């Protein structure tokens, strides 16, 4: 989907800073708190041991790190496990009351940010209606912003109920305000046309789980999520910000899993940037963007 004004500004800022790094060989400091508040919309100070973290950018990719800065302004590097605490925050979710007719589409969306790769899913009561999975590509330090959509193409009476979004990361967890879905006994024009049936020959390709922002440790394999649904089953591919399809042939550092997720092997500093996931079928296509920021493994 389209980037917010804050995200567009941050991408531009990163572009300018990167240009300064390589052209003017300047050292630029950006406070980590500002980084997260601006880009991820979370209060980072409550999640870290200190409130004076900075991100340090230098010409050498090995100097790219998150490290606390002491009162004297000198960077002090610590083990990344000491820096990161488990945290998760739901920054937005569908809430309130939704009224639909039978045959209409129900769509709920939840956005959360958390340490490493948070687990985010929608629940109807105590029953999950979306299904994530554990991240097998563990980073020693990381922050991920996750978007999960619950889409029901043909609402039925059984879909009526109260839904919540639940997010977890390690020992931290959060539950969103609830959204109540009411399904009328009246049928939508589409359902009436199908003789009261929910049978659909085609369903638009939709991306239901992705990460708009990923901060991941360099030297490890990064995983960018992109889960899609639709009928016929969508074909999923990834491009760079210029629209060039990524090379996933044998020997490439890029690999697309059957799930649609992109693996970037042995993450490096030059991998920083915007990646686009495209899910496409004969009905249409859906596109999302992920900003990847490589972090140093202290």
TrEMBL record:
InterPro entries: Ig-like_dom, Ig-like_dom_sf, Ig-like_fold, Ig_sub, Ig_sub2, Neural/epithelial_adhesion. Residues 55-78 are annotated as: Disordered. The keyword Signal applies. Keywords: Disulfide bond, Immunoglobulin domain, Repeat, Signal. SUPFAM superfamilies: Immunoglobulin. The keyword Repeat applies. This is Putative contactin-2-like isoform x1 panstrongylus lignarius. Pfam families: Ig_2, Ig_3. It comes from the Eukaryota. Transmembrane segments: none annotated. One of its GO terms (cellular component) is neuron projection. Residues 88-180, 189-289 form the Ig-like domain. PANTHER family: CTX-RELATED TYPE I TRANSMEMBRANE PROTEIN, DPR-INTERACTING PROTEIN ETA, ISOFORM B-RELATED.
């Amino acid at each position: 989907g389209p980037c917010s004004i804050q995200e567009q500004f941050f991408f531009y800022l990163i572009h300018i800073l990167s240009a300064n790094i390589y052209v003017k060989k300047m050292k630029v400091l950006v406070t980590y708190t500002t980084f997260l508040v601006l880009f991820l919309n979370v209060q980072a100070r409550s999640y870290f041991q200190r409130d004076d973290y900075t991100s340090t950018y230098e010409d050498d990719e090995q100097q790219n790190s998150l490290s606390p800065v002491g009162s004297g302004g000198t960077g002090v590097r610590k083990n990344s496990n000491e820096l990161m605490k488990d945290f998760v925050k739901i920054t937005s979710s569908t809430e309130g009351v939704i009224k639909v007719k039978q045959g209409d589409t129900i769509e709920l969306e939840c956005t959360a940010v958390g340490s490493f790769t948070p687990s985010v899913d929608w629940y109807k009561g105590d029953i999950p209606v979306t299904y994530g999975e554990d991240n097998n590509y563990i980073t020693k330090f990381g922050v991920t912003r996750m978007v999960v959509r619950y889409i029901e193409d043909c609402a039925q009476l059984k879909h009526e109920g109260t839904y919540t979004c639940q997010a977890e990361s390690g020992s931290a967890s959060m539950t969103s305000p609830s959204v109540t879905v009411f399904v009328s006994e009246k049928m939508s024009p589409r359902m009436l046309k199908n003789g009261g049936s929910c049978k659909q020959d085609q369903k638009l390709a939709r991306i239901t789980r992705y990460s708009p922002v990923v901060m991941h440790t360099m030297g490890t394999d990064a995983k960018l999520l992109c889960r899609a649904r639709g009928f016929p089953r969508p074909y999923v591919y990834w491009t760079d910000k210029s629209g060039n399809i990524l090379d996933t042939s044998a020997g490439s550092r890029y690999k697309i899993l059957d799930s649609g997720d992109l693996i970037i092997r042995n993450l490096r500093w030059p991998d920083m940037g915007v990646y686009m996931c495209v899910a496409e079928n004969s009905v249409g296509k859906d596109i999302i963007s992920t900003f990847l920021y490589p972090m140093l493994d202290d």
